Amino acid sequence: MLARSLEVDFFHFQDSLTARENTSILEIREFFDTHVRPIADDCWDRAEFPHEIVPGLGNLGVLGSSWEESRHFENSARYRGWAALEMGRVDASVTTFVGVQSGLAMGAIGVGGSDVQRKEWLPRMGRGEIIGAFGLTEPLSGSDSARGLRTTAARRGDTWVLDGAKRWIGNATFADVVIIWARDVADDQVKGFIVPTETPGFTATKIEGKQSLRTVQNADIVLQGVVVPDELRLQEIHSFRDVATVLRLTRAEVAWQAVGNAIGAYEAALAYAKEREQFGKPIAAHQLVQDLLTRCLGNITASIALCMQVSQLLDEGRQGDEHAALAKSFATSRMRETVGWAREIMGGNGILLDYGVARRFADAEAIYSFEGTREMNSLIVGRAITGHAAFV
Question: Is residue 144 very low, low, confident or very high in pLDDT (cuts 50, 70, 90)?
């Protein structure tokens, strides 16, 4: 059974997925249309997360679909990307929750955990029974995390003592565990720790006043003498290079999420253009509106093509940092253009939540920046094509 193709899939890219993958895509689409779309604007407006949907996300299999211990069926990176697209076209905030839980928190355990840790944590996180977060960014280090990480880890016998601060940590206000990245004071290498949020000395405070991805609960984290046993240290993480492996896997899926957000704005603008009349006919019949819609479709189609190929490279074991970086940089830039044109088509109504573009317009700014800014991703690609690092 093949999922019904989206009209925006102009070149029929989805046809390359397997029948089982397509069936799952249809299930994701129906769940998001039924359970997420009706509440998305209200949750965004109130800046509250809909916890009641988490069990349904677990049942869908979108949490931990990369890992043998938590996936529902054998699947491809292209499928996982298309799943992010489907979720992103309805609500980028919920998609971000899934990305943090599945890609970053579970990804850190999947990449850096021992066999025992993977078997202990991934199945429960995949069912949504345990919520995770990913604590890398700090108040004074974002793009320069590789060199500028200030949170420290000091070994004390069979335990570690963590001190420092993290910022912009999604899911952290209600997470059960946070993956904390800290610099070992003994060897100056970055290590990862599964930190239960009830541990003494750990505090997470919600960041207020956001105007993008408002449903996502981002937090400031403070770690003051947080003691964790060595068994909660990610056993296969030995340096920041291992952290970068996790980020490479998730960066391409952020590109897919960006395409989904652009599609949601385009679909809303297209529907509006067919209904809104000016000068005696629907604005969809005016040349300038058709031009904007065509530009939106072109951006979306080119971005899907790029994302499909970068995911294919991952399936083949050939994806490098530069491939994921170019996909993220390109797709988010084209998304930013597309949501702007969609809002332009709607005129003043485009800034109202009720018309389906304003939320996506605002959310685009966060997607454009996280998982590496356009500039940082450009430098990753630049290093690959010139052989020279130009980060500083």
Answer: low
In angstroms, rounded to a whole number, what is the distance separating the alpha carbons of residues 303 and 295? 12
Decide: 92 and 257 in contact? Cβ < 8 Å. yes
Q: Which of 323, 270, 311, 261 lies closest to 14, judged by CA?
A: 311
Query: Which contiguous run of DSSP H or E holds residue 206?
Result: strand 202-206
Asked if residue 196 lies in contact with residue 176, where contact means CB atoms within 8 angstroms, the answer is: yes
Q: Which of 244, 246, 236, 229 is nearest to 108 (CA)?
A: 246
Strand partners, 179: 134, 194
Q: Name the nearest CA neighbour of 109 among 133, 128, 76.
A: 133
pLDDT for 12 equals 93
Asked if 163 and 103 sit in the same domain, the reply is: no
Q: What are the C-alpha distances in Å from 69 to residues 115, 120, 270, 322? A: 10, 9, 41, 29
Greatest alpha-carbon span in the chain: 79
Q: Using an 8 Å Cβ cutoff, are 43 and 93 in contact?
A: yes
Site of tokens 């573009």: 357
Per-residue pLDDT tens over the stretch 43-101 = 999 999 999 999 999 999 999 888 999 989 999 999 999 999 999 999 999 999 999 99
| Count of the separate structural domains present in the chain | 3
pLDDT attached to residue 1: 40
Give residue 119's domain range. 13-126
Statement to judge: residues 256 and 208 lie in one domain = no
List, in sequence order, every residue forming a beta bridge with 180; answer none if it has no partner. 135, 193
**pLDDT tens digits for 201-226?**
999 999 999 999 999 999 999 999 99
The dihedral through the CA atoms of 159, 163, 169, 171 has a sign that is positive
152 forms bridges with which residues in the sheet?
163, 183
Q: Are residue 248 and residue 368 in the same domain, yes or no?
A: yes
* Pairwise CA distance, residues 255 & 368, whole Å: 9
Q: Per residue in 78-87, is it b (16+ CB within 10 Å) or e — as a string?
A: bbbbbbbbbb
Q: Quick one: pLDDT at residue 148? A: 77
pLDDT tens by residue, 373-386: 888 889 999 999 99
Instruction: Give residue-wise pLDDT tens across range 12-54.
Output: 999 999 999 999 999 999 999 999 999 999 999 999 999 999 9
In the chain, count of helices (H) and strands (E)?
A: 13, 9
